[in-house]
Amino acid sequence: MSYNGINTISNVYNFYVPAYAPKSSTPYDSHKKSELRRVYNSIVKMNKESPLYILDTSKDSQRFAVSIKENARELRNTIASLGGLDEEELLNKKVAYSSNENIAKATYIGSVKQDDDLPIYDIGVNSLASPQVNTGKFLASDEPIALAPDTYSFDIGIEGLNFEFQFSIKPTDTNVDVQERLARLITNANIGMSAQVIRGEGNTSYLRMESNSTGLKEDKPYIYRISDHRTSKTSGTVEYFGLDHVSTQPSNASFAVNGTERTSTSNRFTLGHTYDVQLTGVSSEEGETVSIGLKTDVESLTENINTLVDGFNSFLYSVSEFSDKQPKSNRLFHEMSSVARVYARDLTTVGLNLNLDGTLEVDNGTLRQNAMSDNAKEVFSPMKRFTNSVLRKTNQVALDPMNYVNNTVVAYKNPGKNFASPYITSAYSGMMFNGYC
Hints:
By secondary structure, the protein is of the alpha+beta class. 36% of the residues lie in helices and 23% in strands. The radius of gyration is 27 Å and the shape is globular. The termini are close together. Residues 1-6 have low confidence and may be disordered.
């Protein structure tokens, strides 16, 4: 029951996240034991004094809770990516540049305190890494399938593992019915590839399968193989649909760094533990290169603050989307925008203007002028305090999103004379249950 319960929460949560909140994985989602201990202690303290209440478990409340928690986490990660969570390092992140982002993009991944005297890399791209693509046979979409009703299966070998897929064909199935069934079956399996039905001319359709990864590994000429020679159920679908036809062979990226030829199985790689490089195109002519290096401190600070403002405004917009159905969302919007109002005068001096709706707007001219001034450190000190205040608020929201969901208070606890309840935090996940397995 416990295993099924955990999976139920996971499925429901993952259903809401893509639609109502960003879902990303960053280095800032991993934590030390000391950080997890602090979170645990905060939960215990919060639970000890939390009143007893009846939750609103409607779908709107579920969407709202997931949205504000994930958007708060996203804003926290944005702040962390700008130099770290320490107030001294906030907004100090160096920023990489690329002279031609149509060929390569770069992100600085070095330390905040790393020396500015870093080499500039010149990259020329000969070819990009490509995935394996299989395209099936063109079949008349609406015609009855020419396979007898039965339970069929086929095998996919990928990344050293073998997966068997079983499905049934009914007497009423058409070619496109089964093609769509196979596309969902392969994609939803999450084995490292996806499939889709492509409509052709003259009411025809075919299956297109593509690997998530690129390049050739271990000298193998393929990333995945599809067959039904030794499958456990009825065979014949691989030949009928043409699942084993490789239309595009996988290939490695070929490029040169400062004149030295290199290859990579992926279009993304690191240089000198300093830059995360993403190849986006091929050099248009022989000898054409793109330069990767660090922006100046002024440009880095300007970009960091723009990134912070975009993240802050994005959070407010995500909260305001629920203003009609979740009355407490207005309270959250007011609390977060009030953080900016407290620092409004100092932010205006820096180059950030507070709009009437609570969002921020960047005056890049004033911002750059302040960044180049002799007393830049003093001018931007309120900016760091503002960022730190926003960080504390996002941590609070992420820790207890149910504080902003509609609920009815049943009883308040006697302050200072309570024991910590280990079950209060289950309200967030338990809200998404409508039954038990």
